[in-house]
Amino acid sequence: MKTGSFDRKAQIVFEATRLFGQDGYEKVTIKQLADACGVTEPAIYRHFESKEAIYEAVLQSLRTRMDPSELFGELEKNEDIEPILRGLARHIIEYFIANQDIHRLLLYSTLRDQVRGRQVFDVIRGTYVRFLMNQLDRLYERKVIIRKNNEITARCFVGMVFDCALNVTLWKGMLGKNYLPADVIENNVPIYAKGLKP
Hints:
Blueprint: H1 8-23, H2 30-37, H3 41-47, H4 51-66, H5 69-75, H6 81-98, H7 100-112, H8 114-141, H9 150-168, H10 181-196
């Protein structure tokens, strides 16, 4: 992230996201981060008091980068579960194809540190799970879908879609044929939606 006029704090957060996703929070040092930013360690500390503060800024940055509020506003107008699932799946897959650093951060955080893993999980996947749970509750109250455990349903759907996003980004070809995101969505969303309809 190099430019003539830029926000040093934003650069630090950008490089920290990349490094934490590449090496894990515990392994990344302030010196590594300073080197990646092309500055000294004291320059990092002028913006952040600690590595933990940098991590918190990374989480806040993820919330801002991922802000799906516009998508959620459109999807919650639907009275049918299938367009909601389709829109959510398309957004997740497209977003994480374009932002693989976030996927790496989620995976590394989960493997290395349960507390940080939960924080990243909540910011990344929890946002989608909570939204889908609310939509399932809403559609159940309107008798559009049948009664299920909406938390389990939302977690499983979002988990399935995230796994599909991993398969088309980080794990290409590991189990054979590569499928396009549209193929995954068209195959799986109707199956899921049919299981929810009366």
